[in-house]
Structures are given as C-alpha cells and as structure tokens.
Amino acid sequence: MTVRAKKHLGQHFLKDENIASKIADSLQGNNYEYVLEIGPGMGVLTKYLLKKDYTTSVIEIDKESIDYLKVHFLELDKRIIDKDFLKADLNQLFKGKAFAIIGNFPYNISTQIIFKILKHKEQIPELSGMFQKEVAQRITTKEGSKTYGILSVLTQAFYDAEYLFTVPPSVFNPPPKVDSGVIRLTRKEDYNLPVDEDLFFKVVKTAFNQRRKTLRNSLKSLQLSDKLREDSIFVKRPEQLSVSQFITLTQSIENDGSRD
C-alpha cells in the first residue's frame, strides 16, 4: 500500500531516510514534551520522531495518508489528528502545554504555517522543518538582503532562525521543480516585544508593501508627525533595518504625539 501524491495538497513525499533522520535530529528538545508533525504522508519522518523521548502526534488532512498511518504506525494510536493544521485549534491540541512543530511542509501553505505559529508562539518554543528553499532563505536571512522582508522580520522578532541545509528535488516523489531548505526556529528567551504587537506587525507590513521607497514615503499612511519624520531612520528603505531597529521604530511611532 502506498499513498498517491496529490497536487492540490502540495504533496511531495520525502524518500531519503538519511535526510528524514537529520530533520528529526534537528529538534533540540528544550522546554517541551510534545511534538506535532504537519503532513506526515507515509511517515518517513514520523518513524524517526517516534524513537525520540518526546510524545509525537501527527496532523494530516489527506484521508489516504491517514489510512496508511493507521495501518503502519499502530504505536501512534489516537495521536493521528484528522484536521487541517491551518484551521485546527492549537490551544486545545495539547491542553495548553508547550509543543514543537516539525515537518516536510506543503509548499503551498508554508507561509501560512509560519504566521499561524507566530500567533501561537507562547505554546511553540521550537520549529524544525523543510520549506521551498526560497522561503527558507526568506525566513532566515538578515537585513541588507534582497530576500529580507515581512516574513524575515516578523519571524526573527520572536525566534532565532537558522538555515540548516539544502535538499535537492531528487529525494522526493514526485520531485518538486525547486530545491528545498531545512530550517530551525528557536523561540527567544524574551519573546515579548516592548511595543504593541499589532502596531509592530502593521509597521513592518506597511513598510515592505512599498519596499523600494524610503520609510518617509512608505509609512505616510500612518499619519506620522513632521518632527518624527525628520528622524534619520526615515531616509532608509525597509530592507536596511534590522529587527531591533524595526522595534525601535515602532516605539517611536507609538510615542508620536500626532497619532491617535
């Protein structure tokens, strides 16, 4: 029995055991006892996770994969979650306890997965997994890079992001048309921002929505005072600012007297 890869689910099944083992080993296992694998498919990564000390659950939307896992991974028992990760209530999954995320993530929803993790960062101290290489680089790159953007800043505000290794298309069935990249996110010790989080997200997104413009022009819609806009930071473009500078910028905007 095998599972047919479905294009509409973005499925590319990993078939290289060494890479599966490396991904499983990349979790550092700090501050949690539960691990959730997204999109296990036929369980090539799952089998290595089940050898670890923590308790592994899997979440899968594909009925054919669920049937396969129930037959081949009896030890998973009731830890196969038949749900769409993007719609699942993560607060209820482990009764509010901390858990790590791992997986060979479907490329078509990988950015949405990251944004959902950011919303639940209090519960998720670590993530390790595979993305399309371009997305993996975007998440982990630093300021000054052309790929540095919204995803980079928002993720790195709360997590230390590491690019671990590149994976070629040949190790998948069917092979994707692009390389993949494995990354690890480790939540920062102090991940609470010293600013209003919603405003921080708004500043970052507004700045990068017109990334070729200086901040003076791209942030016009925020109704900043003339005095604040004279600050030297406003002659820069968004990709020139580090995460900490974006936080400082948000603090300045928060304290700007002309704003409501």
Strand content: 15-25%
Quote the CATH topology of the largest domain.
Rossmann fold
The largest β sheet comes out as:
7 strands, mixed
Number of domains: 2
Euclidean distance between termini CA atoms: 62 Å
**What's the shape?**
elongated
Low-confidence stretches: none
Radius of gyration: 20 Å
CATH architecture tag of the largest domain: 3-Layer(aba) Sandwich
CATH class descriptor of the largest domain: Alpha Beta
CATH superfamily descriptor of the largest domain: Vaccinia Virus protein VP39
Walk across the major sheet and give the strand order.
4-3-2-5-6-9-7
Mean pLDDT: 92
Q: Give the helix tally.
A: 11
- Give the SSE string: EHEHEHEHEHEHHEEEHHHH
Number of strands: 9
Account of the protein in words:
This protein has two domains: 7-187, 3-Layer(aba) Sandwich (Rossmann fold), CATH 3.40.50; 197-254, rRNA adenine dimethylase, C-terminal domain (Helicase, Ruva Protein, domain 3), CATH 1.10.8.100. The strands form two sheets. A seven-stranded mixed sheet has the order 4-3-2-5-6-9-7, with helices on both faces. Strand 5 (99-104), helix 5 and strand 6 form a beta-alpha-beta unit. Helix 5 packs parallel to helix 7, helix 7 (150-158) crosses helix 11 and helix 8 (197-209) packs across helix 11 (243-254). It is built from eleven helices and nine strands. It is 34% helix and 18% strand. It is elongated, with a radius of gyration of 20 Å. It has 260 residues and is α/β, with parallel strands linked by helices.
